[in-house]
Amino acid sequence: MTDRPPRRAYAPDFLSELFRNPLDPGYTDAAERRRRLGPPTARQRATTRTVSAVTLALVGFLLAVAYRQTVADEPGRSHAREGLVAQIKQREVVADQLTDRANDLRAEVARQRDAELTGSDAARLRELEAATGLRRVRGDGVLVRVADGPAKKDTMTGAQGPNLALVRDSDLQGIANGLWAAGAEAISINGQRLTATSTIRLAGEAILVDYRPVTGPYEVSAIGPGQLERRFKDSQVARLFRSLTAEYGMSFDVRSVDNLDLPAANEPQLRYAQLPAQPSPTPSGVGATPHPTTSGGGR
């Protein structure tokens, strides 16, 4: 037994080991095996060359077949793509025609309804339709124009990264809410009138307003009081977009416009809950709540 502590053993670091043994252990084992077994014979070399040639021939054959199949299928894919594009355009034309027809019928119904109502009732109904977005309105207001900014490229590699200056559905939602808060009385986005049940959503790379696609540049038109432009420019939404414009290059412009014309929105499909014709079976068990039933003389 001694009082002195044991001596420490220092292992060589990685760089020292790399310079001491620069050859990979696998190469060392292969060289040792070659030294022990001797160089390959002529038959072994011939077999190796044959296997390599057959392998290269098979790989080349597979690449040729794949290329031929790709080239052969390209006309079919192009034809199918062109057919889908033609169908989409045709359906868009039909949808526009049906929309125009629905607008004409709506206007005819409104004329006949106004003819049957008294003056005060017709005026009250027109006011309610204008407030809910179901009537075409015209007046002075504000036009907010926002568009995507250019995608930035890496200064070192030149690769194009994700575009942070794209207009999203949340951006249009924020602009619409900011205009409502500033006192707007009617709003439309690229000709799509907003109502209390309108939706602004993102589907893939497209923005849908009431399930209809809108493309940039996006124009949000709003009719309201004379202070609408000043109030919106002083809002937090406008300050946010000005900072996005300065940082990412997104286009954002707000200006007052006289005599804006906003179209009417489609009438919403309202649904009402009703009692079933036959009473539903009451579930058994503890805490089960009976369903409402109907009986003679009752509701």
Q: Secondary-structure map with pairings?
A:
Layout: H1 14-20, H2 25-37, H3 42-116, H4 119-132, E1 137-147, H5 169-181, E2 186-189, E3 192-193, E4 200-203, E5 206-209, E6 212-214, E7 218-223, H6 228-233, H7 236-248, E8 251-262
Antiparallel strand pairs: 1-7, 1-8, 2-3, 2-7, 4-5, 5-6
Question: Explain this structure to me?
Answer:
This is DUF881 domain-containing protein. The chain crosses the membrane at residues 46-67. With 299 residues, the protein is α+β, with helices and mostly antiparallel strands. The protein has helices spanning 14-20, 25-37, 42-116, 119-132, 169-181, 228-233, 236-248; strands at 137-147, 186-189, 192-193, 200-203, 206-209, 212-214, 218-223, 251-262. It has a domain at 137-151 and 164-262: Alpha-Beta Plaits, CATH 3.30.70. It is built from seven helices and eight strands. The strands form two sheets. A five-stranded antiparallel sheet has the order 3-2-7-1-8. It has a three-stranded antiparallel sheet with strand order 4-5-6, with helices on one face. Mean pLDDT is 80; it is low at 283-299.
